[in-house]
Design goal:
Layout (H helix, E strand, L loop, with lengths): L8 E7 L3 H15 L3 E3 L8 E6 L4 H13 L1 H6 L4 E6 H6 L1 H6 L5 E3 L7 H11 L3 E3 L9 H7 L17 E5 L1 E2 L10 H5 L3 E2 L2 H13 L4 E5 L7 E3 L5 E3 H9 L6 E5 L8 H9 L6 E3 L7 H7 L5 H14 L4 E8 L6 H14 L3 E6 L7 H5 L6 H24 L5 E9 L1 H6 L6 E7 L5 E7 L6 E9 L3 E6 L10
Parallel strand pairs: 1-2, 1-3, 3-4, 4-5, 5-6, 7-10, 10-13, 14-15, 15-16, 19-21
Antiparallel strand pairs: 8-9, 11-12, 17-18, 17-20, 18-19, 20-21
Length: 477
């Protein structure tokens, strides 16, 4: 056997789930690279295989368990390969992962990610699987539980970012809302806002590295509140004002918002600060009060409508997107139709629609029957999608003939597939300030630039356009 201790360790990582997981993977890779690991996208070459997992729906977990099943053989042939399950599923399933997949070497929850390297080494040295998870929500005082979900934002790894000019910045961890269907408060722990000075320093460092667009992350990002020792409170609106001053940052986004916390100070900050993206993701989940109550969403449909009216009045050019759960316990055809009606009157730019998936350990799983049959969930999902798609198409067609400012992200999916993207003129894709996808032909060197594009065609998901020449005086939409 060749001695492998001197050659660089090859790391393969797969990430599922939300942007929080994408950022966590970036940070894990950053710390492992500083210890001599190199990244590979070929799993058969890897000697460390990590899965950063999601627990929000059953489907996300099934995908990981089947991936673990597939690599069992690989571990038999190459026993030196280390396998790790990180993130929300690790926190939720803990020992169950080792029972179902005994070839796994480390199981590490999202609040313990700073231990990845240490535990990989320990598993190897002791020839025994290692686990690091945080306390359950009822496993100690609030301070003890919070401390077990340690802050982990030390090292930024440019190679793992969405692009060299875009980055995520975590401003909060955890969630205290406890919506009855949701596993997140259990697996990501108590809500904690990071100190504003730490966030500003991180954003300044990213801007110095050439980042032009940052996306602030939090499960309920607009609930951000940091109490300084002198008693002053920093809100999201205050934080946005500070970030807006940072030279080099051209676009600042934040996801995901909670309807009750969409306060006027925040809407006014968005109105007054031009570099804040005109894009608000505010999940409604349902348009029926009875369902919202069962979901423990803490608002009524009237409050959501009022929030939409305040958004439209203060920031009329903002695009609003939403999440909906269809087939939640007890959802009747009438309650479902109320969700459809909410979509129709809110005219969301987009809605992410999910079929209810019972999660063990949640209040809904304990209290209610998952009584909507799968076929009904599927049908409601499709019906809702087609209503939303019709709105998307109508609203996108409003852009025909207008010129929009686009941050160019890179070759479009189809250009990337065809393999052109080698310095030639190619099909590029980017986004407007209201998060609309725009596809157009242009030189690859435009990547990372903000450019004006005139919209010539529109589908439900994409605007198609032409790059405007520099001397054009067309106003920007
Ligand atoms: N089943 C289906 N969808 C869910 N979501 C959260 N928990 C569940 C669940 N148990 C959806 C919500 C949330 C989005 C991230 O995932 O719509 O906003
Ligand atoms: Fe889950 Fe509700 Fe918290 Fe969102 S606000 S993460 S849906 S518990």
């Amino acid at each position: 056997m060749p001695d492998r201790t001197d050659s660089p360790k090859k790391l393969y990582i797969e990430t599922v789930g939300c942007q929080m997981n994408v950022l966590d993977s970036e940070l894990v890779v950053g710390s492992l690279r500083s210890e001599g690991y190199v990244l590979t996208d070929d799993i058969s070459q890897a000697d460390t295989i990590l899965y950063n997992t999601c627990s929000v729906r059953q489907h996300a977990e099934d995908k990981i368990y089947s991936a673990l099943g597939r690599i069992r053989k690989l571990k038999e042939v190459k026993p030196h390969v280390s396998i790790g399950v990180l993130g929300c599923m690790a926190q939720k399933d803990q020992n169950q992962i080792l029972r179902r997949a005994p070839h796994v070497d480390v199981v590490i929850g999202p609040g313990q990610l700073m231990r990845v390297s240490e535990l990989l080494a320990k598993a190897k040295a002791e020839k025994a699987p290692q686990m690091a998870v945080s306390l359950p929500r009822s496993g100690g005082s609030r301070d003890e539980v919070t401390a077990s979900f340690a802050e982990y934002d030390p090292m930024r790894e440019p190679a793992m970012r969405p692009s060299s000019f875009q980055a995520f910045v975590r401003i909060m961890m955890g969630c205290d809302k406890f919506c009855t269907y949701c596993i997140v408060p259990s697996v990501r722990g108590p809500e904690q806002s990071r100190p504003p000075e730490v966030i500003l320093a991180e954003a300044r460092q990213l801007a110095d590295q050439g980042v032009k667009e940052i996306t602030l992350l939090g499960q309920t990002v607009n609930s951000y509140k940091y109490r300084q020792p002198d008693g002053r409170t920093t809100r999201l609106s205050d934080l946005l004002m500070g970030l807006h001053e940072i030279e080099g940052l051209r676009r600042i986004k934040f996801i995901t918002n909670f309807p009750n916390d969409m306060t006027d100070d925040l809407l006014q900050a968005i109105r007054d600060l031009p570099r804040i993206s005109r894009y608000l993701h505010v999940p409604a989940q349902s348009g029926c009060d009875e369902m919202l109550k069962r979901m423990k969403r803490l608002y009524t449909v009237a409050l959501y409508d009022d929030m939409m009216a305040r958004i439209r009045e203060t920031v009329p050019d903002a695009a609003v997107t939403s999440d909906f759960i269809v087939g939640f316990c007890g959802e009747t055809e009438e309650s479902f139709q109320r969700s459809i009606a909410l979509i129709e009157r809110s005219r969301f730019k987009n809605s992410f629609i999910f079929k209810y998936s019972p999660r063990q350990g949640t209040k809904a799983d304990l209290l209610y029957n998952d009584d909507v049959p799968e076929e009904v969930k599927k049908r409601r999902n499709n019906d809702m999608l087609s209503v939303q798609n019709a709105i998307c198409l109508e609203d996108n067609r409003e852009f025909l003939g207008k010129t929009v400012e686009v941050l160019v992200e890179g070759p479009s999916k189809s250009a990337a597939r065809k393999g052109n993207g080698s310095g030639e003129v190619t099909q590029l894709t980017g986004r407007t300030t209201c998060d609309r996808i725009v596809v157009f032909d242009g030189h690859e060197r435009l990547q990372g630039e903000f450019i004006p594009v005139t919209v010539e065609d529109a589908s439900a998901v994409t605007l198609f356009g032409r790059v405007v020449t520099v001397d054009s005086t067309a106003p920007l939409a």
